Amino acid sequence: MNQIHPLAVVDPQAQLGDNNIIGPFCVIDKNVVMGDNNHLLNSVTLHTGTRMGSGNEIFPGASISTKPQDLKFKGEETICVIGDNNSIRENVTISRGTASRGKTVVGNGNLLMENMHIAHDCVIGNGCIIGNSTKFAGEVEVDDNAIISAEVLIHQFNNIGGYVMIQGGSRTSQDIPPYVIAGKEPIRYAGVNLIGLRRRGFSNETIEIIHDTYRIIYAQGILKDGIAEARTKYPDSKEVDYICSFIENSKRGIIR
To answer: Which of 53, 125, 127, 138 is flagged as catalytic?
Structure first.
């Protein structure tokens, strides 16, 4: 049975699962679908188009599936998909999609800290930690297990690789490849995320292969030459294939 505070407003067309807790002054709009065991503290808004899984905890002032801040948006029906077991802290805002992709997606097990913003059509993976007041412009993609510190600004259409650590206060208009530390001003490659990789169970041998791959790639004046050399040296490494494929598919170029 759901526990809905008498001061909450839930549209009769909203579809709620079981065992959800809806606190005072929450607003759940029409065309919202929610799973089980979610906890909305006070003053949370789920706008039309929200598709939420189970086990999420959402803190006061969060606003999910907001109207996109995009002048090209003409009111088309789009959605915002939130997975399972996310912690969405105070005053987080997440826009729904536009006609470009039709949906904004946040995966499972993420920690979104207070006052951060995810714009329209972004895709956030699983297990990410995103710091206070960090802002993602439209159509940013973040792979699994990325750590993005506070007050980071990410340009639209950027891609962020998995297992990265991005220094607080950074800003980037280029892609950040996987497994690295990115920081300084202007932002640049600052080494491999050794501590993060060890915490995630990567062996010393695998970490050394990742480190050597970046040494090879960044040592070459032409990236495709470095990629070819790295693939030849480590043909069976899935980590090397991920790095090389990420760089090959980058449309905005990578940090150096």
So the answer is: 138
